[in-house]
């Protein structure tokens, strides 16, 4: 049973007229219809387990600042306590999904077998809570980065014993995700990369990583898991160079190992920025390549060059992201997971609720703006006009020499046309 950490019984209401200090949704209304679909079904919100219920508020220069009644969750009793409070928060927020790592929901055992047994036990407990609440699992994943055994990578580790440990762990996590009806399974390669080429066989590590992913896909089909397998692109942190740097890198990796039809991507806003891209660029590219799956919604601090995992508060940025999602047909198995965490000074239980309510409202505003832009049609009409001369052209089917011969014979003299970027940006600003 919940331990009443949040000291609140009623779910957070939708009330656009609420006062500035009243905890309420001003924009997110699950049943509101946007482009013929319920807002809840468009956004598919999920709350992550790790930042909200595991992270203690530490940073590189300071220890923990948060004091939760389930810390330290180093026993199964405390793990169940944490799950009780987590599902109570899900109920108060009215979110339909959640996400977890194995390390989040169970304490690590003295042996690998003990850790797997504890994961199975907690999966049963979460299954009971899902049945009672109607909550669903958006995705599960394995923590293959925190423990010191992973300091040189997981599937790319030079020690085959670590590779075997990771295989057993991912199998157990995929089994648990399957039993809980997860819509996806994520492989987050937090340490799949290198710190120096002086001790790295890069080609071997890429081959090992590809073989590992192929085995995961094979096992997915063997057990009948119908969800999507997702890779989360992640640049720079914590290694100097990571093999899943961005969407383009991941797609090339998938093509090399023949997995482009089996694996999609889970794109995080903060990771896109660290890779030197915009969030909407990564989403649009994934859609164009046919590998878009899901998103982690957060933001980075504009003055910091690292992944600060803050809750979203910039409606124009979010609107452009959902514009690309809607253009691509929306989510299939994916959704909007808040991979975001409180600031270290936000100590109160209510801060967890305020953070998510604000993020959900920002996403709702962004979604509605994106839908309005699509329904208005101006941007898409202008985009089509820019490429209109390609309609009916057979250039892509003809050999190079034939194209060259005709161009010379016709004496073509192409004249540039304005891309009208400033006008397009002004059109967007009318909606956000």
TrEMBL record:
Compartmental location: Cytoplasm
Binding site for Mg(2+) 1: 232, 268, 296, 339
Cofactor note as given: Binds 2 magnesium ions per subunit.
Annotated residues for binding of Mg(2+) 2: 268, 271, 307, 309
GO biological process: D-xylose metabolic process
Active-site residues (renumbered): 101, 104
EC number from the UniProt entry: 5.3.1.5
UniProt cofactor(s): Mg(2+)
GO cellular component term, pick one: cytoplasm
Domain of life: Bacteria
Entry keywords, A to Z: Carbohydrate metabolism, Cytoplasm, Isomerase, Magnesium, Metal-binding, Xylose metabolism
Broad class of the protein's primary localization: cytoplasm
One GO MF term: magnesium ion binding
Swiss-Prot/TrEMBL catalytic activity: alpha-D-xylose = alpha-D-xylulofuranose
PANTHER family tied to this protein: PTHR48408, XYLOSE ISOMERASE (PTHR48408:SF1)
Family listed: Belongs to the xylose isomerase family.
Record note on quaternary structure: Homotetramer.
Protein name: Xylose isomerase
Native organism: Hasllibacter halocynthiae
């Amino acid at each position: 049973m919940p331990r009443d950490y949040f000291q609140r019984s009623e779910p957070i209401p939708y009330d656009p007229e609420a006062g500035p200090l009243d905890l309420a949704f001003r924009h997110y209304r699950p049943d509101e219809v946007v482009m013929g679909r319920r807002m809840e079904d468009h956004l598919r919100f999920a709350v992550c387990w790790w930042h909200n219920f595991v992270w203690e508020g530490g940073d590189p220069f300071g220890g923990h600042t948060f004091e939760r009644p389930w810390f330290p969750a180093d026993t199964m009793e405390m793990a169940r306590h944490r799950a009780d409070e987590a599902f109570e928060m899900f109920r108060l927020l009215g979110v339909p999904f959640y996400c977890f790592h194995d390390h989040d929901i169970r304490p690590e055992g003295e042996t690998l077998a003990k850790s797997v047994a504890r994961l199975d036990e907690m999966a049963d407990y979460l299954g009971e809570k899902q049945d009672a609440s109607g909550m669903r699992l958006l995705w599960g994943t394995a923590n293959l980065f925190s423990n010191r055994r992973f300091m040189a990578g997981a599937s790319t580790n030079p020690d085959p014993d670590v590779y075997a440990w990771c295989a057993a762990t991912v199998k157990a996590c995929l089994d648990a995700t399957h039993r809980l009806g997860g819509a996806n399974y994520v492989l987050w390669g937090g340490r799949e990369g290198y710190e120096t080429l002086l001790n790295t066989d890069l080609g071997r590590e890429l081959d090992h990583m590809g073989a590992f992913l192929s085995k995961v896909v094979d096992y997915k089909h063997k057990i009948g898991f119908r969800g999507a397998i997702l890779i989360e692109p992640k640049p720079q942190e914590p290694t100097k160079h990571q093999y899943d740097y961005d969407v383009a890198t991941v797609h090339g990796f998938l093509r090399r190992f023949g997995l482009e039809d089996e694996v999609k991507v889970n794109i995080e806003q903060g990771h896109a920025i660290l890779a030197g891209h915009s969030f909407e660029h990564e989403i649009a590219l994934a859609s164009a390549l046919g590998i878009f799956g899901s998103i982690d919604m957060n933001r980075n601090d504009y003055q910091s060059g690292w992944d600060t995992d803050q809750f979203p508060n910039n409606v124009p940025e979010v609107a452009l992201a959902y514009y690309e999602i809607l253009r691509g047909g929306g989510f299939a198995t994916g959704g909007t997971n808040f991979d975001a965490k409180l600031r270290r000074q936000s100590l109160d239980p209510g801060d967890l609720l305020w953070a998510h309510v604000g993020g959900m409202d920002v996403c709702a505003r962004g979604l509605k703006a994106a839908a309005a832009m699509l329904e208005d049609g101006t941007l898409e009409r202008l985009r089509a006009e820019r490429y209109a001369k390609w309609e009916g052209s057979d250039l892509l089917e003809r050999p190079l020499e034939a194209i060259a011969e005709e161009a010379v014979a016709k004496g073509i003299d192409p004249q540039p046309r304005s891309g009208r970027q400033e006008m397009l940006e002004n059109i967007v600003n009318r909606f956000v």
